[in-house]
Write a structure and sequence with these properties.
Blueprint: H1 19-27, H2 30-35, E1 39-46, E2 49-55, H3 58-71, E3 77-81
Parallel strand pairs: 2-3
Antiparallel strand pairs: 1-2
């Protein structure tokens, strides 16, 4: 009797939110952020929460948040922090 295995893609074809994947996605936006005097880097990602080190206008931060949540449906919350002080 033949047996079948059915794999269901629950991610909708979108990548998982890892530091590497989010960082690659942000590469497309970094020059625009920099042109507005800002900077962004991914500090951490896991359990549906992304932490970004960010400097720049609040409106651009909201746009980054929307872009990340649109690309990574598993992200439920994004936390913005200031860049760590240079040593």
């Amino acid at each position: 009797m033949p047996c079948c295995v059915l794999q269901i893609d629950q991610g909708g074809g979108k990548p998982k939110a890892t530091v590497e994947n989010i960082d690659m996605h942000l590469n497309m936006l970094r020059s625009a952020v920099a042109n507005l005097g800002g900077a962004v880097e991914v500090a951490s990602a896991g359990s549906g929460v992304v932490v970004l080190n960010y400097r720049g206008p609040a409106a651009i931060g909201k746009g980054l948040s929307a872009a990340i949540k649109d690309q990574f449906p598993d992200v439920k919350d994004i936390i913005f922090k200031e860049f760590p002080a240079a040593e």
